[in-house]
Amino acid sequence: MTEQVVTEQARTGELQTGLSLWNVISLFKGGITYGRKSVIQRERKVKAAYVEKLREVLINIAADHGDVPDIEEVVTSGRQDSVYCFHRGSFRVETPVSDPQVGDIVTLQCPVGDRTLYLDCSLRYFSEGPEPDGSFLLHSGNHRFFTANMSLTLQGVFVLLQVEGEKIFGTPLYLQLSAASGIAL
């Protein structure tokens, strides 16, 4: 077990859509973490490897494809040539779970204009929850999100799988609790 100490940096209030190469680099500049801050984490080395892989993937996507557009821009412009999209919005679990296991997949949904974005997410990759015995820990910080249909403001990059009428389907590369949710990060 390794104890982690993390410092936080103040963010500017700039309004921006999408995710540029500069945003990707600055995302990792302050030492992005995977999991709870200032706690003992059992899988520290594995989680650090996830963060490094994510950094490399996002830098390569931004370098190869340019800025990652916001999904709202993609669907309103009719431009659906982007495989990777960014979005920040109010997400909720589509079907609340009562006894989650790390092998389960939950679908998060979020309004995007007059459409709905659906992201299928493996519980094993949530930073606070997977236990060594294969269970998923519901605690006071995530209970209402997973079981009571409460929304949280999340932001992230996802692979756009399909746009079908009013439904947008994707799978996330990463999702992060956004400071806009009113919760201190």
What would you say about this model in short?
This protein is an alpha+beta fold and 185 residues long.
Q: What does this entry look like structurally?
A:
The chain is an alpha+beta fold and 185 residues long. The protein contains four helices and seven strands; from the N terminus they run E-H-E-H-H-E-E-E-H-E-E. It has helices at residues 21-29, 44-65, 71-77, 143-147, and strands at 2-3, 40-41, 84-93, 105-112, 115-122, 152-164, 167-177. The strands form two sheets. It has a five-stranded mixed beta barrel with strand order 3-4-5-7-6. A two-stranded antiparallel ribbon has the order 1-2. Mean pLDDT is 77; it is low at 1-15, 38-44 and 181-185.
Which helices and strands occur, and which strands form pairs?
Blueprint: E1 2-3, H1 21-29, E2 40-41, H2 44-65, H3 71-77, E3 84-93, E4 105-112, E5 115-122, H4 143-147, E6 152-164, E7 167-177
Parallel strand pairs: 5-7
Antiparallel strand pairs: 1-2, 3-4, 3-6, 4-5, 6-7
Helix pairs in contact: 1-2
Question: Which terms would index this structure?
Answer:
single chain; 185 residues; alpha+beta; 5-stranded mixed β-barrel; two-stranded antiparallel sheet; disordered N terminus; disordered C terminus
Return the average pLDDT rounded to an integer.
Answer: 77
Identify the strand order in the major beta sheet: 3-4-5-7-6
Distance between the termini: 23 Å
Give a short account of the largest sheet.
5 strands, mixed, barrel
Helix and strand composition category: alpha+beta
- The parts where pLDDT drops under 50 for at least 5 residues are 1-15, 38-44, 181-185
Task: Determine the number of helices (DSSP H or I, runs of at least 4 residues).
Answer: 4
Report the strand count.
7
The whole-angstrom Rg is 16 Å
Instruction: Name the shape in a single word.
Output: globular
What is the helix/strand order? EHEHHEEEHEE
- As a percent range, the share of strand residues is 25-35%
What is the helix fraction of residues, given as a range?
A: 10-25%
